Amino acid sequence: MDTLRDWLAEHPPPDERFTQTLTGVAARAQAGEDLRFAVRELLDEFALRGRDDLRAQALAEEPASVDPHVDAYLGALAEHLARTHALPVPAWAQSAERVLDHMWFPGVAPGFRPTALRESPAAFRRRGIFIARGALTRV
Questions:
Q1: Residue environment code for 40-50, b if the CB has 16+ CB neighbours within 10 A, otherwise e
Q2: Which of 11, 32, 65, 93 qualifies as a cystine partner to 78, CB 3.0-4.6 A?
Q3: Total domains in the fold of the chain
Q4: Residue 139: pLDDT band by 50, 70, 90 thresholds?
Q5: Partners of 104 in the beta sheet?
Q6: Residue 67 belongs to what domain range?
């Protein structure tokens, strides 16, 4: 084994150790934590969830409303992760409250907006959110 990721793939944590959910991300954002940090932790753990049922658990419960931007972002993230892993998209993620009526470029410097327009995943673009490809990539 060359990396920690390889080792973890062969020695996965017990199911009960997986605690990161979109509901938790919303609660952390509501408490004032940086959304990007909470999302990164969810993505890190999501990558370790080796089974579809464990991945679906992280997405299933509807997060509490935080604000229109966070609400739309979490809906987009739920849809993106579900589609990427061939899981059913949670019904809550498709609600009209999870779509912005304007364009939003979270964390994207103005000079990189054309890149975000080009690279943003479909689930985000549909909701008016434009992010660079690397925003959802964890190494």
A1: ebbbebbeebe
A2: 93
A3: 1
A4: low
A5: 129
A6: 4-136
